[in-house]
Amino acid sequence: MIIDHRTYDFHPGKMKAWIQVYKEHGLPVQKKHLGQLIGFFTTEVGPINQIVFMWAYESMGDREQRRAIMDQDPDWAAFREKTAPLGALKQQANKILAPTDFSPIQ
């Protein structure tokens, strides 16, 4: 298993609106295609105006295939069109995490 760990940085005052649109329109599409959401968090201490979320995949190939299929879904395109006018997202970073043999999550 691998974990896709994503951190999105938002412009001040715009994160809440993005979360609402994501919850209503983006999350259902991602759940349909990506599978297992490990967590979705907002930062309270340290860098603020950030969202961190993690998705579990069987492998890099599984991730690539699922994301490619999602990219073709018209509902995903509609979500992206709804968030674009918000001008909320400043930057995005993602990491691929692989568990150690003693990790509770495998």
Outline the biggest β-sheet. 4 strands, antiparallel
Mean pLDDT: 96
What best-fitting shape do the alpha-carbon axes yield? Answer: globular
- Given helix and strand content, the structural type is alpha+beta
Counting DSSP E segments of at least 2 residues, the number of strands comes to 4
SS strand fraction: 25-35%
> What is the CA-atom radius of gyration, in angstroms?
14 Å
Compressed to H and E, one letter per element, the order equals: EHEEHHE
Residue share in helix:
25-40%
Number of helices: 3
- Order of neighbouring strands in the sheet with most strands: 2-3-1-4
User: What is the top-level CATH class?
Assistant: Alpha Beta
**Count of domains:** 1
The first-to-last residue Cα distance is 6 Å
Give a brief outline of the structure.
With 106 residues, this protein is an alpha+beta fold. It is 40% helix and 31% strand.
What does this structure look like?
The structure is a single chain. With 106 residues, the chain is of the alpha+beta class. It has one domain: Alpha-Beta Plaits (2-Layer Sandwich). 40% of the residues lie in helices and 31% in strands. The protein contains 3 helices and 4 strands, in the order E-H-E-E-H-H-E. It has a 4-stranded antiparallel beta sheet. Strand 2 and strand 3 form a beta hairpin. Helix 1 packs across helix 2 and helix 1 runs antiparallel to helix 3. It is globular and about 40 Å long. The termini are close together. 8% of the residues are buried. The mean pLDDT is 96.
